[in-house]
Amino acid sequence: MSKPDVFYSFHFDNDVMRVQMIRNMGVVTGDEPVEPNVWETLKKTDSGVEAWIEKNMKNKDVVIVLIGAATAGRKWVKYEMKRAWELGKPIFGIHIHNLKSMNDGASTKGSNPFDAFNFSHNGVVIKPLVYDPKSSDAYNDIKDNIESWIAAAKRQRI
């Protein structure tokens, strides 16, 4: 079975080191980070960011919102969640506050960003799944379970 191709949605400034840990697990593919100098150019206009999101989300199998301390309030995370739903992408969240960044250690648990949305499919309200890996070994909990979490998100979108 091939590895799922993922689009990650997250708060870059706060969580990039934790996100990189997940990228390096090797369990899923895709979602290469944008180069900082490219991002600086893109973020000058909303249309530049929207075009980048559209291009990079288009052929992904699933969207994973990596939830850190301040993720729920981020403009572009909200946009990515809304756009993923519009495109029919399976979507779910993982709290990443217990991944210990070399720079910051563990963080505080953030709010569920899905609480701000009403997702529905065929008239049925759907609440995307959110996982909170165990604090004692968040890294291995994510690594061991991310594929089954992706499968559950796909079932939820049917």
Automatic annotation (TrEMBL):
<dbReference type="InterPro" id="IPR015032">
    <property type="entry name" value="ThsB__TIR-like_domain"/>
</dbReference>
<dbReference type="Pfam" id="PF08937">
    <property type="entry name" value="ThsB_TIR"/>
</dbReference>
<feature type="domain" description="Thoeris protein ThsB TIR-like">
    <location>
        <begin position="7"/>
        <end position="100"/>
    </location>
</feature>
<dbReference type="InterPro" id="IPR036490">
    <property type="entry name" value="ThsB_TIR-like_sf"/>
</dbReference>
<protein>
    <submittedName>
        <fullName>TIR-like domain-containing protein (DUF1863)</fullName>
    </submittedName>
</protein>
